[in-house]
Amino acid sequence: MAIFDAGLLAATGRPRPRVAILPTASAPDGEEAFQRWAAMGVTHFGELGAEVEPVLVRDRFEADDAAAAQAVGEADLIYLSGGQPDYLLRALGGSAVGVAIGAAHRRGAVLAGCSAGAMVLAEHAFDFRLWLLPWLLRWRAGLGLVVGASVVPHYDAWPEPVCALIALQAPRGSVVLGIDEGTAVVGRNGTWQVHGAARVTVWRGRHRERYRAGEVFRLDGLED
């Protein structure tokens, strides 16, 4: 991801961008996993020339910490780690850190998410748990920073029928982005471009389209 993330840093327009790493989604997996995500972010973006601060928010109580919100609010790039999306939404939704993420987005900061982190940035996110039988999927509101979208990460790690089931159960009007591993999609001014080794599958209702590195699309259905 070095070349790709260097491009995100360059997009901030800062000679030494400030990066905030939020490993919150990994907190349910234990302190070791939580600290590992934070350390990976510090090392990775530090080697790319950024000033990096891990914002160690483990739960909703810490998400209301004023210092954590300030660190996020001042960042040029905010990175949300992988982990459990439902937990991440419960921790950040309506919190001081969640509000700071939205404010940073409006002023032009770069927002990036891996797996669960990518899921919660969208308008809708799903929870997939066996205890939800017979309905394995539960949809809930995301942070809403990518309006009209839902994200299915690790798309190529799942059988296509399972991915189709998820996409077809998405809230009405939601565009579903199925992002393969080793792949990213970057949005700017309404246009989204694919980067990386594989592809992005875009579902609009029952209509499915595939895009590979360099190709662009719009969430409103109008292609560039």
Brief digest:
With 224 residues, the chain is of the alpha/beta class. Helix content is 33%, strand content 30%. The strands form 3 sheets. It has a 6-stranded mixed sheet with strand order 6-5-7-8-11-12.
Write up this protein.
- This protein has 224 residues and is of the alpha/beta class.
- The chain folds into two domains: 114 residues, Rossmann fold (3-Layer(aba) Sandwich); 100 residues, 3-Layer(aba) Sandwich (Rossmann fold), CATH 3.40.50.880.
- The protein is 33% helix and 30% strand.
- It is built from eight helices and 13 strands.
- A six-stranded mixed β-sheet has the order 6-5-7-8-11-12. A four-stranded parallel β-sheet has the order 2-1-3-4, with helices on both faces.
- Helix 4 runs parallel beside helix 6.
- It is globular and about 45 Å long.
- The relative contact order is 0.11.
- The model has no long low-confidence stretch (mean pLDDT 93).
Produce the secondary structure layout.
Layout: H1 2-11, E1 18-22, H2 31-47, E2 51-54, H3 60-63, H4 66-73, E3 77-80, H5 85-92, H6 96-107, E4 110-113, H7 116-121, E5 122-128, E6 137-141, E7 146-152, H8 160-168, E8 175-179, E9 183-188, E10 191-196, E11 199-204, E12 207-212, E13 216-218
Parallel strand pairs: 1-2, 1-3, 3-4, 5-7, 7-8
Antiparallel strand pairs: 5-6, 8-11, 9-10, 10-13, 11-12
Helix pairs in contact: 4-6
